[in-house]
Design goal:
The complex is a heterodimer of chains A (about 325) and B (about 160). By secondary structure, chain A is α+β, with helices and mostly antiparallel strands. Chain A has four helices and 16 strands. In chain A, the strands form three sheets. Chain A has an eight-stranded antiparallel sheet. The longest helix of chain A is centred in the N-terminal third of the chain and has 32 residues. Chain B has one helix and nine strands. Chain B starts with 13 loop residues before the first helix and ends with a strand. The chains are: A alpha+beta (about 325), B alpha+beta (about 160). The interface between A and B is large, with 37 and 42 residues.
Chain lengths: ~325, ~160
Amino acid sequence: MADLRRDRGQIILIAAFALAITFVAIALVVNSAIFTENLATRSDQSDGSYVLQTRHEVEQNVGDVVEYANRNNLSALNESIINSVQNITTQSGLANAQRGRVVSVNVTEDSQNAGERIIQNSSANREYRSSSRNGDWKLASSVDGIRAVHFNVTDKGKLSTSEESAFHFVLDGTSRNWNMTIYKDAPSSDDMKVTVTNGSTSATCTREVTKSFFEIDVTRGQFAGSPCHALSYSNGDRMWIDGRLSNYEVRFTNGSQIAGNYSMVIDGDSLDSSFNSTSGPPPHNLDAIYGLKVNYTFETADVTYNTSVRVAPGEPHG
Amino acid sequence: MDSERPPRPGQRSTSTTLGYVLTLSIATLLVTGLLVAGGNFVGDNQSRVIRQELQVIGQHVAGSIEMADRLVVAGDDVRTVHLNQSFPQQVAGASYRIDIVAQPDPYVRLNSTQPDVSVEVDIDNTTSLGASSASTGRITVRYDQSDDEVVIDDV
């Protein structure tokens, strides 16, 4: 009987141990669940969005450098851009190094796209005629890109009221062309119209202009200070040439039906009309940088990104 | 007085033995039931926790892949994209494996072994994805320039 008494309760004891182990297991599982909650609240690659933000800043900064160099007609364009980009990389590099990031931007001379800036900048309400006073004329041919196209119409009274005989700005490619017409509704009307035809798609914007002048920023899609669907998207169709046009001619038709100033930068240097330097009567042409590619590197402990970034300020994104 | 005679020697303490046997079997039955129920409870919860954790990890991995995709799209002639991320090596005591299933509607599949749990997370991408996998918890999402695709790998 003594033996029996000592063996009593073994099953309860074993069961207690087994249950204790079960409880420990459940504690581990609950712990995992808590860790999951912790993992779920962590942000994704937080550096990832910063990479894109910095890339955008680089594009903006280098774009400003290109604009500045073009606008001020700097001599030794390529070198001055290389030097300015070097300044950007030194300054942003220092600021980023303090946050544990390495950001490097550099540009080489052969990555720069030479172009021409065509401008008419006259205070005399000059018509959009060539230097030899032709109303229908070709500005350039073999053009592969055009950006920062800006028209300032200083005398709205000059505009035609018929779409056919009005001023046309034409990008004429081999298989398709792009056409913008600027006209007004009626002789005494304040309603100005812009009609864009891209291939077979056509759209028109109308703006009431009470002042004597208005501006059209073609590549930014702005007409008289507000966005114009005919220059951006109309019913889901992209109205800009959208990279589908290359090797085209840039022409003005009925340049006598409009007066004011304009400026644009073209990719290519085969100008077809006689332009003057800034000392002679307009229109002028100036050497310019159309666009360039910068080499952009971003590194942190967890992120490495190395790519080229194309910079062409005022060129619509494709 | 016959009726009051004591039991025969062979039948003595039979009820005590019977009592023991009954007590032990009932106790065993109860305890076994308790253990089985407890084990199942733990097992069920483990599977549920693993599923949740794999879902969370899968969302993070899909997020990284989509970020790499954005970086590739944003660049012009992209040479390097590396995004490293650390996750636990095991989820609730089970090891797991992450796969990119490259097909027209690609997704990330996470599989754990013992218990077997499988989770799928959809990816929205522009750059094509390469069939690839990682299993150590410390993963990298990178862009393979030669194949023009985004893959995952162990660091």
